[in-house]
Design goal:
The complex is a heterodimer. In chain A, strand 3 (26-31) and strand 4 form a beta hairpin. The radius of gyration of chain A is 22 Å and the shape is flat. Chain A contains six helices and 14 strands. Chain A has helices at residues 169-175, 189-204, 206-211, 217-230, 232-235, 240-260, and strands at 6-7, 12-17, 26-31, 37-43, 45-46, 50-52, 63-65, 77-80, 90-98, 101-104, 117-120, 122-127, 136-145, 151-158. The longest helix of chain A is centred in the C-terminal third of the chain and has 21 residues, at 240-260. In chain A, the strands form three sheets. In chain A, strands 6-11-8-9-10-7 form a six-stranded antiparallel β-sheet, with no helix packed on it. Chain A is α+β, with helices and mostly antiparallel strands. Chain B is an alpha+beta fold. The longest helix of chain B is centred in the middle third of the chain and has 20 residues, at 93-112. Chain B starts with a helix and ends in a 6-residue tail after the last strand. The chains are: A alpha+beta, B alpha+beta. The interface between A and B is medium-sized, with 17 and 15 residues.
């Protein structure tokens, strides 16, 4: 689930992906930063996809044919095979769909037999404007499945909606133009962009996430830098020097943004309260 | 006369290389517009660039007793590749190596083919392929050099 997913007086959608298969049902408890329950045992919507592979899948296959592709969504994760069975299982991401043929973001790790289960892992719940009635950072939502491990997600309720993507491919090219020659085929680019967004927002800090006053444009470059820094391990030692410089620029940019971002701690729609943080410009004229 | 012909030889090499489609995603080669070692180009700008040079002029003289000179020289063709490291666009080491190996063969084949000498305007008698190697291996770029021996004679020019 992405950070900063709720907006005060608007609401939003919370989601998670189970790591051990799809449960039969799931409830959600949502708490703000003070531990106050905002949603009590809300019923989560589970991904309805429950189909199977219509033919055997070899190890290293990047496409698979499903018995039915109804409800399968591009970019989502699905479990192929089943936990606690005699079949191997792995989680795959669907890059694209053509009829009932799904192309995966990366090749399968193991082989799967014809008829292997293919099920959704996503659980989500809509939070209403009434429930999202205050600003908070670092609240949490407990997704409690009927069976299996519960999952806790961090939840912010923000003053302004922070887009799901804070940068795009064009921003990545602003830093290193030859994007396609630097990344790998297996990279899930949309997910990596969302990951960079969330990591930037974590680095930015909870109070800034919730009360952010700077526009999304100001976040493009630091998020793009964060994205490139995430490629550090994939790119290897050839990029050590560039990554070190990028890290330095990223840290400096982060500090600049934090020092210039006003926030409204008391939530009164102003940033001049006692505990608020803002900045004032004074012009001195002399006669 | 012979010095003028040398530039004509280089221009003919460039004309032939312009017609080659590279295996790399750059699609084709583009002549570097100034006499600068390709290895000094910014990494991201080097992809698909080439430069033709004549590092050494060998013996020359009236080989057959008439007043026409026959010239011999070494000609090098350098081509650049950006190696970002990812295999999506062929920027990994393996792809660059594979593309460069294929490209230098194409360059050798095209330049040594007499049908491409344009003999009536260049006077080229023969071009021999001498070898190819990776000349520069930078952190994010490679330069490959293809070496030729070339012989030309002004009296062959009829155009």
């Amino acid at each position: 689930m992405s950070l900063a997913s709720l907006v005060k007086d608007v609401g939003g959608t919370l989601e998670t992906y189970f790591l051990d298969g799809t449960p039969s049902s799931c409830t959600v408890n949502l708490y703000n930063d003070q531990g106050t329950l905002k949603v009590t045992a809300g019923a989560a919507t589970l991904d309805p996809v429950s189909t199977s592979a219509s033919s055997a899948i070899a190890s290293g296959a990047s496409t698979l044919v499903l018995t039915s592709a109804a409800g399968v969504v591009q970019g989502r994760r699905y479990i192929l095979g089943a936990l606690a069975s005699t079949e191997p299982y792995e989680v795959v991401t669907v890059r694209s769909l053509s009829a009932s043929t799904a192309t995966l973001t990366a090749p399968t790790v193991t082989a799967h037999s014809s008829g292997a289960a293919f099920k959704g892992l996503r659980a989500s719940i809509a939070v209403t404007s009434t429930q999202a009635d205050a600003l908070w950072a670092a609240g949490h939502a407990d997704f409690i499945p009927a069976s299996g491990d519960p999952i806790t997600e961090e939840v912010d309720c923000c003053k302004h909606k922070i887009p799901e993507y804070l940068c795009d491919e064009t921003d990545l090219r602003q830093i290193l133009p030859k994007l396609a020659k630097i990344i790998d085929v297996e990279l899930d680019l949309p997910r990596s962009l969302r990951e960079a967004r969330d990591q930037f927002l974590i680095d930015f800090g909870g109070k800034f996430r919730v009360n952010t006053a700077l526009g999304a444009t100001a976040f493009r470059r630091p998020t793009a830098l964060r994205w490139w820094l995430n490629r550090r391990y994939a790119l290897g030692p050839d990029w050590t020097d560039e990554m070190d410089k990028m890290q330095t620029e990223y840290q400096a940019l982060l500090q600049h943004l934090q020092s210039q971002t006003a926030f409204d701690k008391d939530g009164d729609e102003r940033t001049d309260g006692v505990d608020d943080h803002g900045w004032t410009t004074i012009q001195l004229d002399r006669a | 006369m012979a010095q003028q012909l040398a530039s004509t030889i280089l221009a003919q090499f460039a004309t032939n290389i312009d017609a080659i489609t590279s295996e790399s995603t750059s699609g084709g080669f583009k002549g570097s517009g100034y006499r600068l070692t390709l290895g000094e180009e910014p990494d991201s700008a080097i992809d698909g660039l080439y430069f033709v040079d004549m590092p050494e002029v060998l013996t020359q003289g009236p080989h057959f007793g008439n007043t026409e000179d026959i010239w011999e020289a070494h000609v090098t063709v350098e081509v650049g590749y950006y190696r970002g490291g990812g295999d999506l666009g062929g920027g990994d080491r393996q792809s660059v190596l594979r593309n460069a190996a294929s490209d230098v063969q194409r360059i050798a084949d095209v330049l040594t083919n007499p049908a491409n000498y344009a003999q009536s305007t260049t006077g080229i008698r023969e071009v021999r392929f001498l070898g190819a190697e990776r000349a520069i291996d930078k952190a994010h770029a490679e330069v490959w050099r293809v070496r030729f021996w070339c012989q030309w004679q002004s009296s062959l020019i009829t155009a």
